[in-house]
Design goal:
Blueprint: H1 2-26, H2 33-40, E1 44-49, H3 52-57, H4 60-68, H5 77-91, E2 97-101, H6 106-119, E3 124-127, H7 135-143, E4 146-152, H8 158-170, E5 175-182
Parallel strand pairs: 1-5, 2-3, 2-4, 4-5
Helix pairs in contact: 5-6
């Protein structure tokens, strides 16, 4: 009886672990900047850390791994925005109007616009909402020289990011990449 109970408990634990792993593998919500690059094949302009504990815990090894993945090694939001702005200035010098939109909350999109504008005062940055559902943002894609998506881990979904990128391209817009807000 005891052996059967122990065996049943172990089997139950293994099944529970398998269910959790399968749910994590097929989830469309949770991701990091690195996994977004792998699944969506989208240039990541930077990963903005918002959790103070995560920022202080980011050690030398973490910064090295982020650098190898092409992500900013800055541990503050201002540094990430500055690095992304530097990339935009170098890669798209002819772009005068840049739409900043995506699946992140409005406050993150607005913060990105303000940071980009402070770093690149010669360009005009337009805040937008979702490229999928906001008619004003869809109109702005055609009026802008460049689009930058702002996505939030746990809020934005892989499928949503893919559809946003496809929408920008179908509207003949130029997509520079995405900023990822990491919690």
């Amino acid at each position: 009886g005891v052996k059967t109970a122990i065996l049943g408990a172990l089997l139950g634990a293994v099944i529970a672990c398998c269910i959790v792993c399968v749910q994590a593998a097929v989830s469309d919500r949770r991701y990091s900047a690195g996994s977004l690059t792998q699944r969506v094949c989208l240039r990541i302009l930077g990963a903005v850390p918002t959790d103070p504990a995560k920022i202080s815990a980011m050690g030398k090894r973490d910064r090295k791994l982020r650098g190898k993945a092409g992500l900013s090694t800055a541990t503050d939001a201002a540094g990430v925005y500055a690095a992304a702005a530097s990339y935009l200035a170098g890669a798209y010098p002819e772009a005068k109007t840049v739409l900043v939109a995506g699946g992140a909350e409005e406050e993150h999109i607005q913060a990105a616009c303000e940071a980009f504008q402070a770093n690149l005062p010669e360009k005009k940055f337009l805040p937008g909402g979702s490229v999928l559902t906001d008619a004003d943002t869809i109109r702005k894609v055609g009026q802008s020289d460049l689009t930058v998506l702002v996505e939030h881990t746990g809020v934005s979904s892989y499928s949503g990011v893919i559809r946003e990128a496809e929408t920008v391209q179908s509207l003949k817009g130029t997509l520079a990449g995405a900023l990822v807000i990491e919690d």
